Amino acid sequence: MEIGGRMLWPLLSGLGRRKGTRGWAFSSWQPCRPLAGLLSATELVSHWTAVFEKRGIPEAQASSEYIVAHVLGAKTFQSLRPVLRTQSLTPWQLQYVQKLSGYRLQRMPVQYILGEWDFQGLTLKMAPPVFIPRPETEGLVEWVLEEVAQSSCAAGAQGGPLILEVGCGSGAISLSLLSQLPQSRVIAVDKGEAAICLTQENAQRLRLLDRIQIIPLDVTLEGSWAHLLPWGPMDLIVSNPPYVFHQDMEQLAPEIRSYEDPVALDGGKEGMDIITHILALAPWLLKDSGSIFLEVDPRHPELVGSWLQSRSDLSLDLVAVRQDFCGRPRFLHIQRSGPQHGCPVEARPGPQPARVPG
């Protein structure tokens, strides 16, 4: 989560936060005057692009195209039939475009305005303040899929890998893996109630609830890993954790600062707070030669490598670093090289938690 990557990919993404709705001063927004003589989709896109540009809204044309297409029942403006681009909109449609465009003028992310977004070919519901999946995170999913395909030992009891996702957010990573690995099972955890509910809803919409356990869990709490032991050792741990350096938080765009949960972004002084908790947790949960896949800040590969060298007791090795589509070191593959750690008597788990009801 750094200023040039996860944070500031074209602000059409409307990067934001997970915790609250501090930027939602809708009651103070004064709508623009009713449009006169602008009746077609093409004219509306031109009009709102000009308004957005004048008001300094990032990705002005893309924002207006997505909003107009959404009102007309399409995902993209380019996918609209030519006749729909030129025919007159109804008064209701014009009013709806104006309402949604007003939200964009408040720097609300397009994903929240539309209420959904595509990730790895899946249409996921989006709702504030849950973290919006970024396009570079698709690279993390693709790397995991490659490694699973190449591995001869990443098979759980039911013939596919058992995967733990830490910080599931909207469920984008977990549900993408489930959809492309038909024999896999996922344990998805997040400390945020909104994230747990949204992952649950997206899993239900995609008919994947039978292969995912969704658990409210804060991995920073002592002994939290014990709640995961009833499901058995994991083949993989995958996470796109909070990794923004704390001092960089105030430099984030308004879409980020005002709408998404800061807890989903702020990784502490060096962006490592949650990363180190995941790594410390891993030896208790991973199978022999189990793997961890992380999305990180480009400054983190060196920091993580040094931290792992200082914690040889964890028996974890940084085995590979992969770049994102902008050429920055963004993804880490860490592998357990020693026997699985035992479970201390005082930390043995109680009864298996019940699955979040559908």
From TrEMBL:
<feature type="domain" description="Release factor glutamine methyltransferase N-terminal">
    <location>
        <begin position="43"/>
        <end position="115"/>
    </location>
</feature>
<dbReference type="Pfam" id="PF17827">
    <property type="entry name" value="PrmC_N"/>
</dbReference>
<keyword id="KW-0808">Transferase</keyword>
<dbReference type="Pfam" id="PF05175">
    <property type="entry name" value="MTS"/>
</dbReference>
<keyword id="KW-0489">Methyltransferase</keyword>
<dbReference type="InterPro" id="IPR040758">
    <property type="entry name" value="PrmC_N"/>
</dbReference>
<dbReference type="InterPro" id="IPR004556">
    <property type="entry name" value="HemK-like"/>
</dbReference>
<feature type="region of interest" description="Disordered">
    <location>
        <begin position="337"/>
        <end position="358"/>
    </location>
</feature>
<keyword id="KW-0007">Acetylation</keyword>
<feature type="domain" description="Methyltransferase small">
    <location>
        <begin position="163"/>
        <end position="248"/>
    </location>
</feature>
<dbReference type="InterPro" id="IPR050320">
    <property type="entry name" value="N5-glutamine_MTase"/>
</dbReference>
<keyword id="KW-0949">S-adenosyl-L-methionine</keyword>
<dbReference type="GO" id="GO:0003676">
    <property type="term" value="F:nucleic acid binding"/>
</dbReference>
<dbReference type="InterPro" id="IPR029063">
    <property type="entry name" value="SAM-dependent_MTases_sf"/>
</dbReference>
<protein>
    <recommendedName>
        <fullName>peptide chain release factor N(5)-glutamine methyltransferase</fullName>
        <ecNumber>2.1.1.297</ecNumber>
    </recommendedName>
</protein>
<dbReference type="InterPro" id="IPR002052">
    <property type="entry name" value="DNA_methylase_N6_adenine_CS"/>
</dbReference>
<dbReference type="GO" id="GO:0032259">
    <property type="term" value="P:methylation"/>
</dbReference>
<dbReference type="GO" id="GO:0005739">
    <property type="term" value="C:mitochondrion"/>
</dbReference>
<dbReference type="GO" id="GO:0102559">
    <property type="term" value="F:peptide chain release factor N(5)-glutamine methyltransferase activity"/>
</dbReference>
<dbReference type="InterPro" id="IPR007848">
    <property type="entry name" value="Small_mtfrase_dom"/>
</dbReference>
